[in-house]
Design a protein that fits this description.
The chain has 250 residues and is α/β, with parallel strands linked by helices. It has one domain: Spore Coat Polysaccharide Biosynthesis Protein SpsA, Chain A (Alpha-Beta Complex). It has seven helices and 17 strands. The strands form five sheets. It has a four-stranded mixed beta sheet, with helices on both faces. Strands 4-14-8-9 form a four-stranded mixed beta sheet. It has a four-stranded mixed beta sheet with strand order 11-6-7-17. The longest helix has 13 residues. It is globular and about 50 Å long.
């Protein structure tokens, strides 16, 4: 028997939300939970935690942006998923080698502007599998895992990198694995790596300063936190860089 699927989004632009989720035929059998943030203007993390505090039933929870759009029925995919893992459509995997660390994209997403122009598809370098963290556009978790470990979002992270922190905290405290799974989806935003992002990254670097793991982020690619921050880190693409990678692994 399939567990219900709740799609939880903090919403300010209801026209975009209708375009991506409430008017999406692939969401007709899902329970949509829009969290209207136009008046309170609270951090995304505070509203997500408020939802978690009131969620008592067994269900899959899809935390996603109002401008993120699934392009398939998610329920059949979830039938085979391990409820003890975190999932997302795109993430970053860090491989530690003798001379450097290497970053690989796992998962895929169609990425464009709000109006759908200037789009590109971000393709994986590695097949589906373990990642350090997902992009904030979408995180999928089963409610039973949340309840068992008391998982929560860090409310000091109001907008940037809160999913990355959720993944890192789950891994460090409880050994919970994050796994990228490829399915068709779209994200009508590219994010802004400005001063707010840099301050948030600095907060995470301080928060995980004593960690033995080096966690990567897909936002900004070479931005990492925890572990040995002095080790060289490279973003691996298809092509001639593979020769450098082979040399550095010796």
């Amino acid at each position: 028997m399939q567990n219900p699927v709740k799609v939880v989004s903090v919403v300010r632009d209801f026209a975009m939300y209708a375009r991506c989720l409430s008017g999406n035929p692939y969401c007709r059998e899902l329970e949509l939970v829009p969290l209207d943030n136009r008046e309170e203007n609270l951090p995304v993390t505070a509203l997500y935690n408020r939802f978690l505090d009131g969620c008592m039933e067994d269900c899959w929870i899809v935390f996603c942006h109002e401008d993120w759009q699934p392009c398939c029925d998610l329920r059949p995919l979830m039938d085979s998923w391990d409820r003890d893992c975190l999932y997302g459509p795109i993430g970053i995997y860090l491989e530690s080698c003798p001379r450097a660390d290497f970053l690989y994209i796992r998962g895929s997403v169609w990425q464009g502007r709000k109006d759908g122009r200037h789009y590109k598809t971000i393709h994986p370098v590695l097949p589906d599998g373990p990642v350090d963290t997902f992009d904030c556009q979408c995180l999928i978790v089963h409610s039973s895992l949340v309840r068992r470990h008391g998982l929560r979002f860090d409310e000091r992270l109001p907008f940037d990198l809160y999913v990355e922190d959720f993944c890192a905290g789950a891994r460090e405290r409880f050994g919970i694995e994050s796994r990228a799974v490829t399915f068709p989806c779209r994200h009508y935003s590219g994010g802004i790596l400005g001063e707010r992002f840099r301050k948030t990254l600095a907060y995470l670097q301080d928060k995980y300063r004593g960690s033995r793991f080096r966690h990567a982020t897909i936002a900004g690619h070479l931005n990492t936190f925890g572990g040995d921050a002095d080790r060289p880190v490279y973003n691996v693409h298809r092509g001639p860089f593979s020769k450098i990678r082979r040399y550095l692994k010796k």
